[in-house]
Design goal:
This protein has helices at about 15-25, 40-50, 65-75, 90-100, 110-120, 130-145, 155-165, 170-180, 185-195, 200-210, and strands at about 5-10, 30-35, 55, 60, 65, 80-85, 100-105. The protein has about 220 residues and is of the alpha/beta class. The chain folds into two domains: about 5-125, 3-Layer(aba) Sandwich (Rossmann fold); about 135-210, Winged helix-like DNA-binding domain superfamily/Winged helix DNA-binding domain (Arc Repressor Mutant, subunit A). Helix 4 links the parallel strand 6 and strand 7. Helix 1 packs across helix 5 (about 110-120), helix 2 runs parallel beside helix 3 and helix 8 (about 170-180) packs across helix 9 (about 185-195).
Length: about 220
């Protein structure tokens, strides 16, 4: 199986090098397609030879990463986007998700964590920094509490258990261990949850679960 190619778009050189090392740590699965520092350079790469993953910062010298995410989505349905940024505010997170981002990491994520997140993304997951999940929880708990139950999808007890762990930021392998399930079974539950919530990613599932009041946490 050929290695999947990753495009890094990050204007800070030390950070760009750190992300490149995260990719180099998994030589059998992924490889660096290119590492650039501007939207213009990124667009040239995306148009010439779309990568499997766009790893993008939001604040770039000549534009915004969200615009690149939209462009990547329009140019190739096979390119998945993941944000790596210092911005964890609601506007940035939801803007990126709505534009098509399937993962969202903060820049304090370790090199190992970034590499694992890329592999999770390529395996069909939607990695999201636990701090971002917690941010969404705090922002939407009040709204979730007032949402009408009539429009809330009905989930089984096990689906709710899986969803609660997803919202708390646990990875799918961690959920499998915590619930004594196989990773395949967890994947099946997650697909059912996504279908019932009418979402396509982990980040969207977290948002919908909190907005609909399906998951009740203590904060």
């Amino acid at each position: 199986m050929s290695r999947r190619r990753i495009l890094i778009v990050e204007d800070d050189e030390p950070t760009r090098e750190r992300l490149a090392r995260a990719i180099a740590a998994h030589p059998e699965e992924i490889e660096l397609a290119d590492a650039v520092g501007t939207c213009g350079d990124a667009l040239r790469v995306l148009r010439r030879d779309p990568p499997e993953v766009l790893l993008v910062d939001l604040d770039l010298p000549d534009g915004h990463g969200i615009d690149l995410i939209r462009a990547a989505r329009a140019l190739s349905a096979d390119t998945q986007s993941m944000v790596v940024t210092v911005f964890g505010d609601e506007k940035s997170v939801l803007g990126a998700i709505e534009a098509g981002a399937r993962g969202y990491l903060l820049k304090d994520e370790s090199e190992e964590g970034v590499g694992v997140a890329i592999l999770q993304l390529l395996a069909g997951g939607s990695p999201i920094t636990p701090a971002i999940a917690q941010h969404l929880i705090l922002r939407f708990q009040e709204r979730a509490a007032t949402t009408s139950a009539e429009s809330t999808p009905v989930l089984s007890k096990r689906e709710l258990e899986v969803l609660e762990l997803v919202v708390k930021g646990f990875t799918f392998p961690e959920i499998a261990t915590l619930l004594a399930l196989s990773p395949h079974t967890v994947g099946t539950f997650v697909r059912r949850i996504y279908r019932k919530l009418e979402v396509r990613s982990r980040a969207e599932a977290v948002f919908e679960a909190l907005q609909l009041g399906i998951v009740k946490l203590d904060g």
